[in-house]
């Protein structure tokens, strides 16, 4: 569950290309800091370094108080040379230093980010997310063209424990099925061990600003059996230059457009919709409590309204893509959330939870539409 506040999202994320795409849905003028976090064009690399990655991840051995009765001059345990008794200025008790582990923290705020083995290599976000990708970005001051690449967004989550940088080109892809989307390279990393350094191709559907990171398997469908793969993971070593990165984005665009066409060609009849609805939001048994039944009925009502009359779904109602768009939109905008919904959606997209949810939706849809 994301704990990002509106203030955090308006100061610790940077959003570009607003002249073409408007403000992010979490934008709040009253929560902007000393300088706005929205940019009319691409986000400058220098601003990402200064505003987001202007601190270092430092590491120290964890310390903890020893039991009462232990004195500061007690020698270290010979059987465990990785532990050492030390005096900490200002502490009334002796402290034990665990030299087997290291606590990683932010140099600017002191906030702890994670605890790892002493052999764990501590890297910096600038090295992981910018040093390689910066070479792909169109230099500041050059005209933006269809072949230019730039930072569309970047940010920190979980107090700095998770970070991302998104590289994209300016134009939107329009499919014959009426789906407008943008494809980008999403680079993510973490300081708490929750995410490996990874690069993925993700897609943003314009009509609802929802993130999609699923893909149909290139093996194509066999009869009516569909195969799926998780979000497309890209190798950082493949980004030899901007041309190679641009080629990857174009390939990802072509693949997503082809997948949309396949799903739009998959019919979903009213009877099949009822079966999908029962699978996704089943009504509880008669002996279930009133609150459980009310929650289920509310969920079903929201899904039905999206399917039949919501502009973010209605153009594709009656198709497999329409069902995916219905569930994706419900999860982004209607699913009960504690705290800030925009923060939850952001971290779900960055960590891959959105991709996993979309993949599960498609898997369940194919099972319901293709009974054994």
UniProtKB/TrEMBL annotation:
Species classification: Bacteria, Bacillati, Actinomycetota, Actinomycetes, Mycobacteriales
One matching Pfam family: DUF932
UniProt cross-references to InterPro entries, sorted A to Z: DUF932, Phg/plasmid-like_prot
What is the official name of this protein in its record?
DUF932 domain-containing protein
């Amino acid at each position: 569950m994301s704990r990002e506040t509106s203030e955090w999202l308006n100061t610790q994320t940077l959003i570009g290309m607003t002249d073409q795409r408007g403000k992010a849905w979490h934008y709040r003028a009253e929560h902007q800091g000393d300088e706005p976090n929205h940019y009319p064009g691409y986000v400058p690399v220098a601003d990402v370094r200064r505003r987001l990655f202007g601190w270092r991840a430092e590491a120290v051995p964890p310390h903890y108080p020893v039991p009462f009765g232990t004195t500061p001059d007690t020698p270290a345990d010979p059987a465990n040379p990785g532990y050492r008794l030390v005096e900490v200025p200002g502490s009334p008790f002796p402290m034990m230093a665990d030299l087997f582990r290291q606590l990683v923290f932010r140099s600017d705020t002191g906030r702890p980010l994670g605890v790892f083995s002493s052999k764990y290599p501590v890297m910096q976000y600038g090295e992981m997310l910018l040093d390689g990708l910066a070479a792909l970005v169109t230099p500041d001051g050059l005209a933006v063209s269809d072949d230019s690449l730039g930072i569309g967004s970047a940010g920190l989550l979980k107090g700095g424990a998770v970070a991302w940088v998104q590289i994209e080109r300016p134009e939107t892809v329009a499919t014959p099925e009426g789906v407008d989307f943008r494809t980008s390279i999403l680079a993510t990393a973490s300081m708490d061990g929750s995410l490996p350094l990874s690069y993925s191709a993700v897609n943003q559907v314009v009509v609802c600003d929802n993130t999609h990171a699923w893909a149909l398997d290139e093996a194509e469908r066999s009869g009516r059996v569909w195969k799926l793969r998780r979000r497309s993971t890209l190798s950082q070593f493949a980004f030899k230059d901007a041309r190679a990165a641009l080629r990857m984005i174009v390939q990802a665009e072509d693949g997503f457009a082809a997948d949309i066409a396949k799903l739009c060609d998959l019919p979903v009849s009213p009877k099949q919709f009822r079966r999908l609805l029962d699978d996704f939001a089943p009504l509880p048994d008669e002996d279930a409590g009133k609150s459980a039944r009310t929650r289920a009925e509310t969920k079903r009502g929201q899904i039905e309204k999206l399917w039949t009359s919501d502009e973010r779904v209605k153009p594709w109602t009656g198709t497999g893509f329409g069902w995916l768009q219905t569930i994706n939109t419900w999860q982004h905008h209607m699913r009960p959330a504690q705290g800030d919904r925009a923060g939850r959606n952001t971290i779900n997209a960055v960590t891959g939870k959105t991709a996993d949810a979309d993949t599960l939706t498609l898997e369940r849809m194919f099972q319901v539409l293709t009974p054994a």
